[in-house]
Amino acid sequence: MTRPIARPRLGRIAVHGALLFYTLVAIGPILLILVNAFKSRRAIFNEPLALPTAKTFSLIGFDKVLAKSDFGLYFLNSLTVTIGSVALVLAAGSMAAWALTEYRFRGNALLGLYMAIGVMVPIRLGSVSILQLMVDLNLVNTLTALILVYTAQGLPLAIILLAEFIQQIPRDLRDAARCDGIGEYHIFWSVILPLLRPAVATVAVFTIVPIWNDLWFPLILAPGNGKQTITLGVQQFIGQYVIDWNAVIASLSLAIAPILVLYILFSRQLVRGLTAGAVK
Amino acid sequence: MGGDVSLAEQTASERRRPWSHILVFLAPAALIYTVFSIYPLLDTIRYALYTQDEHGIAHFAGLANFIDLFSLPVWADQFRNALLNNLIFFVIHVTVQNIIGIALAAMLSLPKLFGRNIYRTLIFLPTMLSVVIIGFVWQLILSPLWGVSEGFLRAIGLPQLFAPWLGQESTALVTISLISVWQFVGIPMMLIYAALLNIPEDLVDAATVDGANHLHVFFYVKLPLILPTIGLVAILTFVGNFNAFDLIYAVKGTLAGPNFASDIMGTFFYRTFFGYQLQLGNPTMGAAVATMMFLIILVGVMIYLFGVQRRMQRYAL
Amino acid sequence: MPDVTLRGISKSFGTVEILHDINLEVKDGEFCVFVGPSGCGKTTLLRIIAGLESVGAGELSIGGRRVNELAPAERRIAMVFQSYALYPHMTVYRNIAFGLKFSGGRKAEVDAKVRRTAEILHLTPLLNRKPRDLSGGQRQRVAIGRAIVREPSVFLFDEPLSNLDAALRVNTRIEIAKLHRQLAATMIYVTHDQVEAMTLASKIVVLNHGRVEQAGAPLELYHRPRNLFVAGFIGSPKMNLIKGRVVASDAEGARIALADGRETRLRKIEAALAPGQEVTLGIRPEHMAAGTGGPVALEGSVDAVERLGEASYVYMHLTDGTNITLRSPGDSKVEPGSALTVSAASGAVHLFDADGLALAHIVIPA
User: Fold this and answer.
1) What is the CATH number of domain A69-240?
2) Does A109 touch chain C (CB under 8 A)?
3) Residue C99: which of B210, B221, B316 has the nearest Cβ?
4) Of A43, A48, A240, B104, which is the most exposed, with the fewest CB atoms less than 10 Å away?
């Protein structure tokens, strides 16, 4: 490790100062909201920066949110769409990544390029036709529509990440299985898939976050009653109750919480995924 | 493998066997992707060449939509405005976001930095949250009614700086851009951090022995080696910016006010397609706008792939 | 006046102590090689001298100045890294010139120095290439060039040959030796390969677990190893070690009982031995021969024979299980499975006490 001798102390203090400052900038606003979610209306206005005390503690915001809106349902919808999409992406994506990496066939490279285009070109641009397609398929205002679209959206990146990962599986493992006379499907199922487990976490995180946080497609494809995702639900709720600060802040906190938990649990995988797959 | 099967038969059957497998493996992904991603894009471009009459029937119109887009004031003004705003949006991102991101990554990659993981995790947190949430959080904080930001500025002795930035035409776009930067700075930070980690310690040692201090090492050794990653970040920012919609919609609604001051291509597209109080939704024109967005992004990506990426090759480290 | 002096140098990383109380002197113009197994601390020691690691405890002087707190660039040292550490985005010219960038100097001066260095190392036609267009050997020369151009008082080499293939390694070894003579500079060289150490060094420092086992001229370490570790480390194949116990000892010599029950008589032992003392006898494979011509006759059975043309290596084991290697010139007629008696025929029989320290080196006339 390098540690040049001359004057390290002063520089380090400045660095920590800068980092601390920016960290505060980064999480300050979020903390502010979370803290104020548990305060009474008066306390929010009079002492926005104070922590909730016994006197100012209040769950009134949450009560209103849970009473006036279907947060539970929205949450379930988001969960359904997200899990459905991730499952499809992982299933279809790993199969495609496997086929592209392992087998030599004409057009392999071209197909790879075809799939990779999706990373650079946003799927939203085709929304006019997507909506028409959903109308024709009778899928408007269904979670299925969202799942299909998000799967299409998530596949390119997932395939790139998974292909990278599969390439690192030693050739010998695959060839040995073939020498044993195991069929191709069986090789994929029992040899390759278990080895993909570390990559699954990374791909899942990359896929989940854009889906969970998306506003565009729920707005266009499934805005109807009972089918909103949590992001759309929050947006509509706030639009409706914009002057009710308790409710607004509480609903924001409720929307933040799941991602926060997920993030704390999986931050290591996320970082590993970003740092590994990023340098391409 | 086979036993008594002759070599020639074996090779033939090998060649025959994987074929169906490949198709089966590729089919689901290719199908979903093509139907819901590629086809709609191509269809949108096709649709942009049509117009819809009052009964909703589409007639082929050639480039009429595009001509209207560029010449009819009702479209052209908004289009130009949105495009310009998007450019400003992009420039603010590339400068502010990427410079802060590089600085943070450089600091985080210093050897033996205490608390590195904690800093990294916390600074990346806003990126994980929904843009909608971020938008509202900042709306509250910047709101004159709540007074948090006013109070903050007063506390650091700059009360006169405060203004309802989000509500003013002159400052709305910049404010929203900065909010977006605040949220997404984590991504360039992470990508550049990863690239910096890839630089072998030896190079830093060699430069130190050659007489370079930390700043020298950064500018002469590290920065040149992470230029490809910076290029990647720039193009990702470009694509992302010209696709942005959620934040502005959440904060300002369809009209991207005040007075279209924060209108960018994404919101323009949405408004054109779905319409609003003063205007009926126009799917074919919407398709035209989407096609323009696609072309702009395509040009940007082409410039990147053939201009930037070729120049900034990755060095065999 | 010694060029590099280490006094009482110790270093820990966290709670792990890597170097213990190292005391060394490297004279001006010496080629000093730090050698030892992985993890012995030799690279850490080199990096401390370079200034890339801080001194834990102790005094470090270069050219007579105490340099503990000085940055690497201020110590007038230059380093050649194991991986060459060439700046991939710079041409060979700029790579070499980089070292002069921070010490001032006009452009013309810098240019002259770079070109002169390139001449010495036959790099002139490559000046405009980037490292990725160079072969391994060429890259190494650029790394050396980058060091030379700074005209340091001490050159530091960190295992520079380990990334080269065998043939190139021999050639480059000769080049480095020539360079040393040409520049008459002080060089400190780290390697795990004892052959490199023996061929290049004017002084070898054997390190083990952060301690200096022995420091001295190569042949001195070969003929008079100070302990079991150095005896086993220097020389390939390793020295044969046979356990024994002193039966009787007087002014003439001593009788030592070996594990298989036989006794051997050794004359002219410089040290005093006590009866019953546990000792270890060391004889190098190249100093043994078949037959009972010399002392320390050993009986065993042959496990394998390797014939390399210029010599043969006979691997056998004694009745108590001890493995013995014998090197005989030319083609050996011995076959695996046969019984064989060998004894010391030339060189020396080394005697070590129970703690592994050398007691005596008894020369065996050939």
Assistant:
1) 1.10.3720.10
2) no
3) B210
4) A240
Inter-chain touch A103–B120, beta carbons under 8 Å: no
Q: Looking at the domain assignment, is residue C233 inside a domain?
A: no
Helix, strand, coil share of chain A (percent; to 5): 75, 0, 20
Q: Are residues C110 and C251 in the same domain?
A: no
- CATH of residue C199's domain is 3.40.50.300
What predicted TM-score, i.e. pTM, was given to this entire model? 0.81
C-alpha distance from B239 to closest chain C C-alpha (Å): 28
The domain that holds B130 is classified in CATH as 1.10.3720.10
- Please report the sign of the dihedral spanned by the C-alpha atoms of residue C353, residue C356, residue C361, residue C362: positive
Contacts of B1 in chain A (CB under 8 A): 178-179, 181
Q: Between C77, C87, C101, which is nearest B203 by CB?
A: C87
| C-alpha distance from C318 to closest chain B C-alpha (Å) | 48
Per-residue pLDDT tens over the stretch A189-221: 887 888 887 778 778 878 888 888 888 899 888
Listing DSSP states for B235-282 in one string gives: HHHHHHHTT--HHHHHHHTTTTTTTTTT--HHHHHHHHHHEETTEE--
- Each domain of chain A, given as residue ranges in start order, spans 8-59, 69-240
**Same domain, residue pair C87 and C112:** yes
Number of domains chain B contains = 1
Contact C79 B200 (CB under 8 A): no
Cβ burial B204-231 (10 Å sphere, 16+ → b, else e): bbbbbbbbbbbebbbebbbbebbbbbbb
> Domain of C84?
2-225
pLDDT in tens, B231-273: 888 888 898 888 788 888 888 877 777 778 888 888 888 888 8
Determine, for residues A259 and B40 on separate chains, whether the beta-carbon distance falls below 8 Å. no
B315: nearest CA partner in chain C:
C88
Residues of A in contact with C70 (CB under 8 A): 5-6
* A46/B contact by beta carbon, under 8 A: no
A9: nearest CA in chain B?
B113
C264 and C340 within one domain:
yes
Pinpoint the alpha helices (H) of chain C: 42-50, 92-101, 107-120, 136-148, 166-183, 194-200, 218-223, 228-233
290-309 of B, contacting A, C-beta below 8 A: 290-291, 293-294, 297-298, 301
